[in-house]
Amino acid sequence: MKKTENRKIITGLLAAAGSTLTLLPILAPVIFSIIKMIQGGPFLLDYLMPAELFFVALLGGVMLLWAANRAYSKRGIIGWGSAVAIGSLVGGQLIAVITGLASGATKADGWQWALVLLSLFIYTASLVVIGITGIILTREQFQQIR
Known about the structure:
By secondary structure, this protein is mainly alpha-helical. It has helices at 3-38, 49-52, 54-71, 75-99, 110-143.
C-alpha cells in the first residue's frame, strides 16, 4: 500500500467516526422512541436530547474538522456548520437564562419559548448538515482508494 492510500484510509475512517458521532444525537431520540413504541408505549420524541448529547456531537465535529483538514476538502461547510451549531446552542441557552425560561420564572410559551426552540432547531439542522457532509467526505476518501 502506498503512503497516500494509507492517509486516505485513515482520513476516511476519521470522517466516518466523526459523522457517526455527529449524527448520533439526532438519531438516538428517534431510535429510543421507536423502541418504546415497539414495546407497547406511545411514540414520545425527546427533542432536547440532541442538546443533551452536545459533547458527543462536539467530539464528532472535531473529528470531522480534522478529517477535512487532512483531505483538504469540505473544510468550510464543516467549520461553519460547527460554528453555527455551537453558536445557536449557546445562544439559545443564553436566551433561556436571560428571559427567565431556564429558572421557571417565565412560562414556557410566547416569543421567548419560540426563540429558544428556533435556536434548538438551528442547532439540530446544523448537526444534520455536518453529519451528511461527513458522510460525503468519507465516501470521497474511500472512492479515491480504488
